[in-house]
Structure formats: structure tokens, C-alpha cells
Amino acid sequence: MKTVLHFSVFPVIFFFAVVAFSQDEGGIINNEMLIQIKSHYSDDAATKAITNAITNNDINKLACDRTNAAKFDNLFTYKVETKGITDQKSSGRCWLFASLNVMRPKVIDKYNLKDFYFSHTYSFFWDQLEKSNLFLESIIQTRDKPMDDKTVEWLFKNSISDGGVWSGFVNVVQKYGVVPDEVMPESYSSKNTRMMWRLIRRKLKEDGLKLREMYNNGGSVGELRKEKTTMLGDIYHMLAINLGEPPDEFEWRYEDKDKKLSELKTYTPKSFYDEFVGVDLQDYVLFMDDPTNEYFKLYEIELDRNIYEGVNWQFINLPADEFKPFAVASIKDNEAMYFSCDVGKQLNKEKGVLDINNYDYNSLLGVDFGMNKKQRIETFESGSTHGMTLIAVDLDADEKINKWLLENSWGKKSGKEGYLVMSDEWFDEYMFRLVINKKYVSDKILEILKLEPILLPPWDPMFAEEE
Question: In a 3-state reduction of DSSP, which class is residue 347?
């Protein structure tokens, strides 16, 4: 998220006046410079052929190295046992799918099931309501700041979205539990979230302005919070008519692979999680490989949570090679991991392969693209855009990593029947976040969790939510 500077009217006029008077010949594309620029385009047969090809075709199809994808088979030395592929449809809920897909194999294995799916709609409902409360409460907390204050501006720009990260999943599950998919199934709006959350966002911005106006007219914090409750009633109504109302309790039973039917029992969403899943989410550590910040430090992102009383996004920053051994140990022990990355970079959608050599833009276009990971982050060219589940690794005889396997949430028709094969080189360049159970992490690295976290602003270029 880019930093935006604000000026009063007079400084803006003065600034542009300075720019106008400081212009000189060196900053202008004059005839001499234009001749030099144009000399980089040669009107020869080879260039004509490339121009004809590019002006009539998709650049990715022309730049794709067809032999590269053939280097990657779909075989892995170690793989987490999983069943079924999920589909987030036209929504930004990848973070929720990836998180629940970490839990899903555990449930399937524990109860000997053919398959099992959590309700993403249920968790998404509470995520959206809690984000609405967080925004309105944050507006109350910043009520005395001007509209062009950096934090206030960020709040109104980011009032709500359907994106998120692992820590948001933890917050929602710990407060509201989970339910099976059939208890609160998908709706049109859960599968196509954009219009719903845009309207909620519009309403929240209107409500935020109203709360600020109430304060300016002498309203107390108590009065503002009473009005906030009424506002959240409207948001709850909008969510319920789009997604359905979440259950307070439900009856449920299952049939295992041996056709054995379980007892029909009554659960609350929290009792269902405690009994049926039973995983302590505090046992997981979020790692990042962010070269724009110092490694071997603990960081926390200010205001980056989805529940007011929940935890902010907190992570240990390490070079990827430092936590890859933990990831391998997790897979060997049949434990999937939450993984996020810049999925659009060098993705061969047809083959389902992520590799840095999939597309050769340098040769096709005759220019060099040479930024490293740090430079791509600093210039907003790269950042985490998508969450998936890391489930397999392929090792050679010397235990060197060849490739990884990701379980995606784009349906079975995407990639290799819903999976993406990822080279280890691509992991280094475009992986950003990985969540690993503490039991696979060395004591030396766990000591970093005891440090005082370094607080980073929510508008840092690295900290957009996965969609």
C-alpha cells in the first residue's frame, strides 16, 4: 500500500510552481534524444517477425518455454495424505481455504473418512462482521484525529475486504469455532463476494463519517459505541441475507470409509471444533522471508487483525533456507502447512507449474528484467497475493530439495487437477509466508518468539492480505 503525502492547497500550488520553473532541457524528450531512443528499435527481419508475433498474440504464449514444464513430474518422496480439492470460486477467501485445508487432513485421518469439508461460509460470516466492528471501533479510537491523518486515511481506504491471513483464521476459530460444510453451505454471495463486500464497505465508510460527526458535535464514547451497535446490526442483516444466518448449535453425524455411521449429536460450533478437530492453534508459528526487513527478528503489523480483541499479524522473519528444513519435517510427519506467495509470477496455468524459467521475457522483448526479491517488494512489483496449502516435497538421494507441491483452492480444473508443482528456486523468489507447527521448529528459532516484536505500519508494501 503506497504512502500518500498530503499538503494544504497553498503548498500544492507552490510545489507545482517550483516544478514548472525548475524544468530544463535535460528533462525533455527533444529531437536529439528521440533519435537515440528510436535507435533501440531495429527495423530488420528478426525484429519485424517478433513485432508481428507480439502484436497478434498473447505475450505469455510466446514467452512460454514449453520444454521447461516437462522437467517437473508429479511424483514426490514425501506427501501429506489429503482428500478432495476445494474451490473458492470468485472470492478472495484463499486464506480461509488454505487455513482450513491444513486442518482437513487431520479430521479425515482421525475419523477414517472418505472426505470432509468445513463450512467456509460460516467462518467468513464472522470474519466480515468482526472486521466491521474493528473498523468502526478504530474510527472511534481515532475520533480526534483529522481526516488526512495517515492512520485515519488508511482505515477508510481499508475498511473491509474478503482477504486475510493465517492469524485472522486463528482469531475467528478461537472465538466462533467451525461447522461442517453441510451445516452452512456456500451461497451465491459467498462464492461471488465482490458486490456484497463492496456494499458493506460503502455502508461502513458512511457509518465511520457519522461516528466522527457525532464526536465533533459533542458525542461521548459511550454514545458512539451505542450507535456502533446499531450500525453493526445493519451489517449483520446484510451478511445474513447474503450468506445465511450462522447456527448457534446444530445436529450432525458422519459415515466413515467402512460405512459405519456415527451417533447423531448436538454441537455448538466451538464444541465441534474442540471435539472434532481439537488442534491448539497457538502451536503454530508464522514465518516470512522479507528481505526488506532485518532477518532473525520478531515483527508485528499494527492494526492488522480481523477481531478487535484478537492478535495482530506477528511473524519471525528468516531467509527461506532457514525454515525449509522445518517444512520438510512437517511434511514427513503428514502435517500440511499454510503457504502464501506471489502466485501470478511465472505460473504456467496449463501445466500447473511454478518455476522461474517458465517464461523468457528477456529474450522475447530484448530487454533485461533483473530486480531481486527485495527490489521487487520495495517497488510494489511483488508481494503475497494468494494463500494455498503446502503438502509435499521431493528430495534427491542427498536430501536436497527438488520441488514442492501445493494444494490450491481454484477447483479441480485448475493446474494439475487442482495442485501446483513448485520448483525450489521459485520458492526462494516468490514465497512470502509459511505457517509451521512449533514441534518441527528448532529451539534456537523459537527463542525469537520471546523477543519484543518490532511494530511495522499496516501500509508497509509487504502486508497486503491474500485474496
Answer: strand
